[in-house]
Amino acid sequence: AMPGDTSARLERWQKIITETRRYFALKTIISLVTGVTIGVLLVVLKVPYAPLWALMAFLFNFIPNIGSIIAAVPPIVVTFIVLDTSTLIWVIAIYLAVNLLVGNMIEPRIMGKGLGLSTLVVFLSLVVWGFVLGPVGMLLSVPLTMVVKIVLTASDDTRWLGILLSNEVAEPV
Fold it and tell me: Which of 36, 39, 143, 152 has the fewest CB within 10 Å, making it most exposed?
């Protein structure tokens, strides 16, 4: 082994750790905004257990694409059972609006710029890692895909695959 190999590997691991931390920091902020927004609006509507639903929105938002849908089901069911139809419509509208705004506009821009992964790759990674590792794979889909991208980009032979996973434009050779 050449001395340069060790420093290159160490640099790669450092990049993996840095990118994983960046992902969880960005995702935590986005999830916090989602949870707090939903929590405040549900409190205003006097939906029972609003803090619990806010916590669920925060936690389930860590599962890309479908987590917010899963988090919306219990409060919608409780509102349907306990409160009136107009409140139910408002609760559904709140979840749709917050998740469309955050999930489809804010988050892809922040994650794309912050992590360098294309939106399509983020969605496909959810499917692939979810199939391979189940629910844990869904939760870890973006960090695992970032690791794959970093490893692929580190080698001249596989750099093109790393570029395919990114939102970067390939430079001509």
Answer: 36
* Closest among 105, 27, 39, 24 to 71, alpha carbons compared: 39
pLDDT tens per residue, range 85-132: 999 999 999 999 998 898 777 887 777 677 777 778 878 888 899 899
**Tell me, what amino acid is at 70?**
I
In which residue are the tokens 């570029």 written?
A: 163
Distance CA 35, CA 154 (A): 37
Matching residue, tokens 């970032």: 146
In which residue are the tokens 């139910």 written?
Answer: 88
Please give the pLDDT value at position 168.
Answer: 66
DSSP code string of 86-117:
HHHHHHHHHHHHHHHHIIIIIHHHHHHHHH-B
**Cβ-based neighbours of 163, under 8 Å, separated by 6 or more:** 153, 170
Answer yes or no: is pLDDT of 170 > 70: no
Residue 155's SS3 state is: coil
- 3-state SS assignment for residue 152: helix
Provide the residue ranges of all domains of the chain, joining segments of one domain with +.
3-165
